[in-house]
Structure formats: structure tokens, C-alpha cells
User: Which sequence fits this backbone?
DNA sequence: GCAAGTCGCGAATATTTATTCAAAAATCGG
DNA sequence: CCGATTTTTGAATAAATATTCGCGACTTGC
């Protein structure tokens, strides 16, 4: 076994942050992140993760995670300095963090302070932060570094 | 046209009331109801109906209708006045929108709400919005989605 | 009427996805 | 550590699904 759990996490992230519509593309994106598996394995993964292939508004096929049954598993809420829930998504070399209204600028300050190892700068709105990643730093790495002072980012 | 509409209704009903997991079975059930079509047509139908193939709790594949937008309807209420001029420019996976001073944050809110299919997050200043696009989404696509609620973006 | 444009469809085919069949790799109970 | 058992996986293949091509039926505008 290699590391199914991490791979599952990567698959979920990819599906949430990009518009993949077939297993081959997904396979490549996984490969970019260091997960080398075959289509057979991916097919099984998608089945276990209950990923659905569906048509989006533009008539293209895309994968979607199945809706977590509402009320089912509440979202984790941990805290940074105050009790804030933070989520992170990636696209290219940019990370986008969402938090509760009003907390973004404070959090951005923390990121500038403590995350400089992976982030070269941030811009914050009311509840959203855009953080530009250093070149050649992986999404996993960013998440890991930020998790050190933003507990709710952890798995 | 024979009776596409009726057939669509039948497909929806079958999917809701039984556990079909492939097009061949579905084809037979349709046949029982008097709809004789080929797999090719059914594949197209499922695409149009936005039917998803997903794994159920028992680990079997089943078709599911896509969730009607959560929170019920009330979706096309708030919109951006056609009078407010908005322009959009792209660079890499980032879209930059300009509008009249003071309108940016309101517009950004709309984009977060309604554009999540293509945008993973926004930050707004006075008259500028930075929106980070999902990976593998084209500029045209972003423009198209945003145009649905920002009339002045249309060409 | 008729040329031009749509639309829905089936047959054939291309593409994508799931499963079968071993074979490693991990796990467990002594 | 060692055999027995379960998991995870890849290669090959089967199965399922999507698309291409073309055709006939229907409009529409002249």
C-alpha cells in the first residue's frame, strides 16, 4: 500500500477546486501532486469516495463530491487565536482562504507573519484572503505550514 | 420529435423509484413503459437531465437526479443592475473586475454566492475585485457564468 | 414549393470506466 | 519471525457510456 488516505484527500481537493471530467485528466493532476496510480485504482477510489460524474451548466461532464447528508457530520471547527473556522482552496499558485466575516484581515496578518516560508503575500477582504504562493511550493506544503498556526485547516 | 418530454418524465420517475445502475437496465424499464429508444439516446437524455451515477450506501452504482439548488428557489432575485458598468480582464487564473467606486464589495458578494462553479474566492477593494478561478476553467466560461447575473458583462 | 437550418434519433464507433485476475504489501495471531 | 489472511494495486479486459455521422422529419423565410 502506498498512501490511500492522502490520495483520497488529494482527489477531493482536486475535484473541489477544478473542473475535471474524466479519470485520465484526474490521473494527471494526481500525478502532478506526486500520486502515481493507474486508472483502475482511480476508478475504485472514486467509487469509495462516492464521487459522481454529472453534467454542469455548460454541458460538460465534471466530477462532484456527493453532498454530505445535511446535519450529518458537522464541519469541524477549531480555532486560530480566536475561534475561527478557516477553509482553504487552491488554484494555480494562489490559495484562497475563507473565514468568518471580519476575521480575514487579522488572519492575513498572521499568514504574512508566520507563513512567509511558503507565501509571498496576501490580500484580505472581509471574509476572504488571497495568498500568493512561492514558486515551486506544493499545495500540500502550504496547507501544512499554515496548519501550524491555523488548527482548523488540519485534516 | 416523438415524445422526448414524456420520456424524460419517465426517466426521472424510474430513477427516483428504483435503483438502476446502468443504462441497459434503464433501457429495459423504459421499454416496459412503452419507450423504445437506444442506448445512444438514453446517454444523451441522462446528460441533459443532469443525472449522476453515484455509489450508494451498499456500494452499488445507482443513478440520481442532481440536487435542486439548495435552499430551494429564490435564486434569481438579487442581481446587478444593468446600469452598473462592469468590466472583466483575465491574467492566468485570476480575473480582475472593475466597476464604479463603492460597488465592488456588493458585486464580490454576488460572485461568491452565485459564481462558485467557476470561482473559488474573491477579494474586493473600492472599485476592483480580484477573483480566483478554478483550475481548468476557461476565461470564456467564467465570463459566461458571471454574465448570468452581471448583465453588463455580456457582449 | 424549396433551399436552408434544426432537431431527434439510431447505428456504429470511440472513449471512458469498472472489474477480473494475479501478485505484492500490509496486518494479525501466535 | 512466520504462515495465514486481508488489502491494495496494476495490467488486461470487459462493460458501460459518450460521440460521430448521417438521415429523415419538421420549420421558416422567401
Assistant:
Amino acid at each position: 500500500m502506498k498512501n490511500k488516505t492522502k490520495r483520497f484527500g488529494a482527489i477531493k481537493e482536486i475535484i473541489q477546486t477544478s473542473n475535471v471530467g474524466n479519470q485520465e485528466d484526474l490521473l494527471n493532476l494526481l500525478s502532478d501532486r506526486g500520486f502515481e496510480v493507474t486508472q483502475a485504482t482511480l476508478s475504485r477510489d472514486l467509487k469509495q469516495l462516492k464521487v459522481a460524474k454529472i453534467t454542469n451548466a455548460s454541458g460538460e461532464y465534471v466530477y462532484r463530491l456527493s453532498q454530505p447528508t445535511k446535519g450529518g457530520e458537522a464541519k469541524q471547527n477549531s480555532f486560530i487565536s480566536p475561534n475561527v473556522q478557516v477553509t482553504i482552496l487552491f488554484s494555480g499558485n494562489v490559495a484562497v482562504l475563507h473565514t468568518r466575516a471580519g476575521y480575514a484581515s487579522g488572519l492575513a496578518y498572521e499568514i504574512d507573519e508566520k507563513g512567509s516560508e511558503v507565501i509571498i503575500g496576501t490580500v484580505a477582504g472581509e471574509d476572504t484572503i488571497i495568498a500568493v504562493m512561492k514558486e515551486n511550493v506544493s499545495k500540500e506544503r502550504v496547507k501544512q505550514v499554515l496548519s501550524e498556526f491555523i488548527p482548523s485547516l488540519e485534516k
In short: Residues 1-2, 22-24, 39-40, 42-44, 46-47, 53 of chain A lie near DNA strand C (CB under 10 Å from a C1'). The two ends of chain A are 20 Å apart (CA to CA). Chain A has two domains: 4-65, 87-153. Residues 19 and 51 of chain A are 13 Å apart (CA to CA).
